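Protocol step 6 of 9: fold each sequence in the batch and record its structure tokens directly after the sequence line. For illustration, a two-sequence batch is reproduced in full.

Sequence one:
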Amino acid sequence: MLRGMYTAATGMVMNQYRMDVVANNLANADKTAFKSDEAIFKSFPEMLIQRTREDGLGWVPPGSFDLAPITGKLGTGVEFNESYIRFEQGAVKKTGNPFDLMLDDRAGERPGFFVVNTDRGERLTRSGSFILDRDGYLVTPDGFRLQGENGPIQIVKHNVLIKENGEIWYNERLGNEAETGVNETSNQWENPVLLDRIRIRTVEFPRELKKEGNSFYADTPESGPIREFRDFGTAGEPQILQGYLEASNINIVREMVNMIEVQRNYEANQKSVTTQDSLLGKLINEVAR
């Protein structure tokens, strides 16, 4: 009976972890390029149940347990194992903003990331919602600068073209006088000059990255160090889409179903604990008489 209460209690703890993960996913469903988390659990080792004699003692013949018949297995509960990040590609959202960038890596083996210089050092991010600060640098909404291969990226507001391979071009003829956005097919696009290339990186095991605030990821010993792609911008590798953003990969319907399932499992385990506690109390009262 006590073991049954313990098993039900561990089930309640498991479902509390699951509820925290589901609630966090739903809270960030509208966040640009947010990646959902998945909670993984593992069971404690099962125990074999052996029949005992009428006096409550086990069959213990010298040198063997063969006379103690096995009647079945007993589960001993579950425990939280890990929470990993699912990096499936989110939906494509067209914005038309030249500073909105999206990494399209549906055909790639592993996801790519923008590199941002934060107050804690360089961090990876999937969120491509950038703005232009007063000094002309591409920065996150919190003011952290996007990194190119040559350092922070400084551009002119209406004179920038970002290609799929991450190259940043500007129109030398227009210089700082551009008043409207330019594009590759515009008749204003003359004398293009390569300014820099956006730094796109990855890691060997993305699911082992550590999430930080503001949509950032930090590498860990398990994820491996931050490294370059072999042929970024080619087929099979991530590509940058200018004027687009990646939506979160949260499936709201699935998460709501998960939330209902977790709640019902928690209530079932809670009822089991309450019932066994009541029975145990009655047993103690009978023995005490």
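Sequence two, same batch, same settings:
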Amino acid sequence: MKALERTALLRTLQSRFEQHPQRHPGIAWAAVLARLEADAGALASLQRMEASGGEPDVIGRDDDDGDSEGDGEGDRGRFVFCDCAPESPAGRRSLCYDGQALAARKENKPAGSALDMAQAMGIELLTEAQYRALQRQGEFDLKTSSWIATPPAVRALGGALFGDRRYGQVFVYHNGVQSYYAARGFRGRLLL
């Protein structure tokens, strides 16, 4: 990433971070910035999230990494970045669930798959629990829907899960893995 792109991305992330303090109580931008400056791979992933319309922001910490005994704020747990765009990121829509589903389509193939794109971006799809946790921080996917990580048993039967918010409720549904829609994309997360 070029220096100007890096500077612009960091400015965008800082601005979003400061505009939405309710997403990350008790987390200081200086601690996030220190980690971002030390991880070029994470910055590249965040640039891809931003470029595809994800509007990534810190939504908390992942303290399940075994390092919850840190000495200072920047040491305890990894920061969780997540797509916080109001609707499923526009640059990640019209995708089937995974590469196997894409390969199985005989005609009218989409441009790609959610899992393959997430992997190429260096991020992961949200699980159902993570998607519901994000929805507690705001109202997302009021007009769109987002593929979510699907349990292997469901995927083995040819299904995949997606979520949205309608009628003031968060819903998780199922669809065939080969399906794709102009209003369905995916939200990703990145641990830093």
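Proceed to step 7 once all outputs are recorded. Observation for sequence two: The chain is about 35% helix and 20% strand.
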